[in-house]
Amino acid sequence: MFGEQLKTLRLAKNISQVEFAKKLGVSKQSVSNWENNNILPSIEMLKKIAVFFSCSTDYLLELEENRMLLETTGLTLNQLSHIQELINDLRALNSRIPPKTLHDYD
Known about the structure:
9% of the residues are buried. α2 (17-24) crosses α3. This protein has a domain at 2-60: 434 Repressor (Amino-terminal Domain). The protein is mainly α. It is built from six helices and no strands.
């Protein structure tokens, strides 16, 4: 649900509800209500949240999975090409590494 998506993104950026609320110009209570799925933000606020986290509104609303956007303004085509190569390398690496189990941490 939206609340879990929002909380996961916020925690990944390592910011508190208070800090996030200040960045958006809303109250901490609004952020708390969104994360607890008590209310949904307005469409305009949803757009602001998507821009803040560099993701699509579809991702926030769980209409698509694992679709994050990267802010690439000011980068050259050569730099963008290098970023794409890194992404491809990470995908290849992930496909070769078996997932860890709880026993691997003992």
